């Protein structure tokens, strides 16, 4: 689960981490009122969307010459103007794709006199089974380019969660950032605070870009992104309450209500599979046969009829779907339960696209009988290769 910048900063502030003063806003009036509470005379107006690259982004409605989603405002009138241009318009960044994201929230912060910018992030390194703290002296909007062109400027420090954060980790962070004196001590302390927040909140990723050194010698978090392990949210109702469903794909939001692992893709063959590995293999074999999957959807090992029905409806709600491939290996999952869910959903939504089903495993014959006696134009397949060939042929024939 992702959250907005202002929400992430509020969480970090609880751990004593320095952030510039700021106020969230949903309207132009709230943006101006928030700026009035700040010292000024320089303000920063920041679009709040779940995507990076906002500063270099462009608004679809404002033309190529318009400023991006992070703007410096030198007066309250500038804040009003910038807020009016941002709210309700679509910001396109390198991470949103061409569709962009509509800006519904703003964050108005106090301006900062910046002496230097750094980069610091934390994530779970699955290869080592440790938390990786990644730091660089090259903070700012182009950290991806730094990683590509000059990877030697990026340092990775791994922390064993069984041991926890140790003083030498803090010293390593400060050394990598080439900080001395009091700034060295601040960096070591900040690294420990960030690690504590990361572990306490079950974060999947915490990125600060930039971490800035101010002209009066302070380290401040100027921008941050946080995401969380969705499987651990039951431990953090306060974090779960920060979820902004307007930033998520509606079909993915609906899938989450039924505990379905669903991700929308750009293809035209809808997939319903049980098991992540089998789902990946199914998507691969669709592509091998010349078409592309429209989604990743894992219904899990013990889905109910209702869950399968919901999954089927979600697939069919995607207008890009021209055909559906169901691939089920019934271990814990029973093939007759899958078949009943497929039939119920297909009848309810008036199935209008080709459907190929491959069943194997527990109660497979009962499942096949249910499909065969449903009165629906369902094509049965003997194996995965056969299923992929049939759904591609069916879609091409229907085109």
UniProtKB/TrEMBL annotation:
Signal peptide stretch: none
EC number: 6.2.1.5
Lineage per the UniProt record: Bacteria, Pseudomonadati, Pseudomonadota, Alphaproteobacteria, Sphingomonadales
Entry's Gene Ontology BP terms: succinyl-CoA metabolic process; tricarboxylic acid cycle
A GO CC term assigned to this protein in UniProt: succinate-CoA ligase complex
Name of the protein this chain belongs to: Succinate--CoA ligase [ADP-forming] subunit beta
Coiled coil segments of this chain: none
Alphabetical keyword list: ATP-binding, Ligase, Magnesium, Metal-binding, Nucleotide-binding, Tricarboxylic acid cycle
Residues involved in substrate binding: 274, 331-333
ATP-grasp domain: residues covered: 9-255
SUPFAM superfamilies (alphabetical): Glutathione synthetase ATP-binding domain-like (SSF56059), Succinyl-CoA synthetase domains (SSF52210)
Organism: Blastomonas natatoria
Any Pfam family: ATP-grasp_2
Reactions it catalyzes: succinate + ATP + CoA = succinyl-CoA + ADP + phosphate; (S)-malate + ATP + CoA = (S)-malyl-CoA + ADP + phosphate; GTP + succinate + CoA = succinyl-CoA + GDP + phosphate
Cofactor(s) listed in the protein's UniProt record: Mg(2+)
